[in-house]
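Dear colleagues,

As part of the handover before I leave the project, I'm documenting each prediction I ran so the next person doesn't have to rerun anything. This entry is a single chain, and its sequence is reproduced below.
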Amino acid sequence: MINVLFMAERNSSRSILAEALLNRLGAGRFEAFSAGVTPAMAISPYAIALLHKINYKIEMLSPKSVEDFGHDAAPQIDIVFRLSHHLPKGKMPIFHGDPMVIDWFLPDPEDVSGSPAQIATAYADLFGALCNRIEVLTHMPVEHVCSPVARLRLERMGEDYIRLAS
């Protein structure tokens, strides 16, 4: 089992959706967690709506602090995905083990203002980008996921939005 932590600023949208997707798509091979530097009080209602559309049970999801993963009882983390550009230096706890840290900076849909349809579109775009990346991760052989080659591939996915040809 590979333990993965998705980190963002507030842990209310990007990291929550990534946690849910990896736990669904990588069930039995991966266990995903999510956390924020300054956790929100609640999950974004737009993220909840997306999770309901894929019939994901949200009862186990809630915003958490990265500090929750730096104590003795915390699970050992193998990979940390940083989803936010705005994570302050020095705010990463010392994790058990020596996790691989990968940057997948994605726009925060909570920063989008406009009509409900425009905001929902931003969430759908984020969800699509996460689905693409997480699907690639889940198709990697488990024994190679933490290898230097896989690290390079995972880091390259974070350089730009992945756009699939139609």
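The chain has one domain: 2-157. Residues 12 and 44 are 5 Å apart (CA to CA).

All the best with the project,
I.
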